[in-house]
Amino acid sequence: MSPARSKSAARSQRGTRDHDGNAARAAAIFREVGMPFPLAVTLVEAAERRAGSGRWAEAEALLTEARPILEELRAEPWLRRAAEAGRQASVV
Hints:
Blueprint: H1 3-33, H2 36-52, H3 56-73, H4 76-90
Helix pairs in contact: 1-2, 2-3, 2-4, 3-4
């Protein structure tokens, strides 16, 4: 791998870690203050990102937490989005 590609890959990995950390912090805050909808949205978006990068088990764990919240809130568009992310995560 060329030095430029190595640097690009390192930046990409760092960006993924930053995003993961930010999503985890946001989810923790939403849990703490009792904001279920933003929590579920954060979980679905984080799951989509993980599924898109091949981190299937992590994506499914996030969706497992998000689905019941979305079902209780009857957030149909977000349930559909979670279902699509789940399909991505299950296609290995």
